[in-house]
Amino acid sequence: MKYNFWFVVGSQLLYGDDVLKTVETRAKEMVEKLSEKLPYPLLYKVVAKTNQEIADIVKKANYDDSCAGIITWCHTFSPSKMWINGFVNLQKPYCHFATQYNKEIPNDEIDMDFMNLNQAAHGDREHGFIAARLRMPRKVIAGYWQDTRTHKRIGDWMKAAVGVAVSKNMKVMRFGDNMREVAVTEGDKVEVQTKLGWQVNTWAVGDLVKEINAVSEQEVDELMAIYQSKYDIATDNITAIRYQAREEIAIKKMLDKEDCKAFSNTFQDLYGMEQLPGLASQHLMSQGYGYGGEGDWKVAAMTAIMKAMGENGNGASAFMEDYTYHLVEGQEYSLGAHMLEVCPSLASSDTKPRIEIHHLGIGMNEKDPARLVFEGKECNAIVVSLIDVGGRLRLICQDIVCVKPIMPMPKLPVARVMWRAMPNLTDGVECWITAGGAHHTVLSYDVSAEQMKDWARMMDIEFVHITKDTSVETLEQELLVNDLIWKLK
């Protein structure tokens, strides 16, 4: 889907035709120039002057699948009561852009004609009141429309809104059930579909095996050529790599046939399969599909959504798991990895990811699975966990700083990322556990905490952010207040 955003300008009929023509001309100019700087097209729609015009444009936006959100601006004063009928029916993400056409007050020319035309400061306050009165989920962005910082803020909001559009159409394919006896990977699928739009259903592993067995040698050859171009092959066991290619092709066929953008599996249910899909899952993730290990369908969907929110619609976001800590004073780090399945979008550019084959000492593998091995990039990042706390969903986000692993770990045959958690390792761990954060996360270099906050607000779910300034005490208070607030919703 190629998404776009609609630009709706607020005004009123009292100003007369000449003023309204000027407003429209300027709005079109702004849209043209803004579209050159934003990640998605911005389309001018209307200078809205009546209740009916606003209600009509909202109705059209709601039913246009390509429209990912509406951005409004009031060049002049726009009485807010006429926005009520439209706003109460709006089903798309909404951004109130508080700007004005001119950057400076023209000292020599300013008169009452100028004041009547350039009333953004006046109109934005009226416009903002009605959204506050209606308790609308919204993003308010103030700044001059030609400033780089403003472009970035609007662009970041656009990406979060695209995440909403992707979420509303998300279908997750589960191969088998969750890992037995694990709590955090469970969840209310009916509630998730109601709140987030996700359709989460199960397909038999046996059906996947049939699809694997039907893959042709030519298809495998074509995918092997792609592997060889992207990765260093550090094994002589080409047969094992070709089997991963078969798995990838089969999974992709099933996902595409059912229009699914995410999938999960578990090492406890590999009925008829020779290997747990490692390289297969990693390469699928590099193409924008979401994945969750041990049947974790929530993290699978969130991976796909955050990938879509990232750079060029498939950013550096990946399924991740907290594994172990380095607790040496002054060198406190977390080591994240998984048995096999970490997306190569996280890989450092220093070297190509390597395809290696090693024994996997867990699960029902008949043969040793192939996987990509690499180190993660050095960069600021976030880790995100969506959990079901009973009666509502909570999105937990923690700021982290990824570093080059401080040791080579030559016997660790998996992709790995090392990071310093905020506010520090021990307080960060205590905060994460206090909030109920899962061991599975999405680690992202491309998506920011502010974007995830915007996404959570648009989806009407709880958001918890662990930062350099968070303490266990303040977080406990925040969670207590959140419990009271969300029980009233």
Quick synopsis:
The chain has 489 residues and is an alpha/beta fold. It is built from 15 helices and 19 strands. The radius of gyration is 25 Å and the shape is elongated.
Question: Which terms summarize this structure?
Answer:
alpha/beta, 19 strands, single chain, 6-stranded antiparallel β-barrel, 489 residues, elongated, 15 helices, 5-stranded parallel beta sheet
What does this structure look like?
This protein is α/β, with parallel strands linked by helices. It contains 15 helices and 19 strands. The chain has a six-stranded antiparallel barrel. A five-stranded parallel beta sheet has the order 2-1-3-4-5, with helices on both faces. Strands 7-6-9-10 form a four-stranded parallel beta sheet, sandwiched between helices. Helix 1 links the parallel strand 1 and strand 2. Helix 6 packs antiparallel against helix 12, helix 6 crosses helix 14 and helix 9 crosses helix 10. The mean pLDDT is 94.
Largest sheet: 6 strands, antiparallel, barrel
Low-confidence stretches: none
What's the total count of β strands?
19
Structural class of the helices, strands and pairings? alpha/beta
Mean of residue pLDDT values: 94
Helix content: 25-40%
Alpha carbon gap, first and last residue:
33 Å
Main sheet: strand order: 11-12-17-16-15-18
Number of helices: 15
Task: Report the principal-axis shape.
Answer: elongated
Give me the Rg, rounded. 25 Å
Strand content: 15-25%
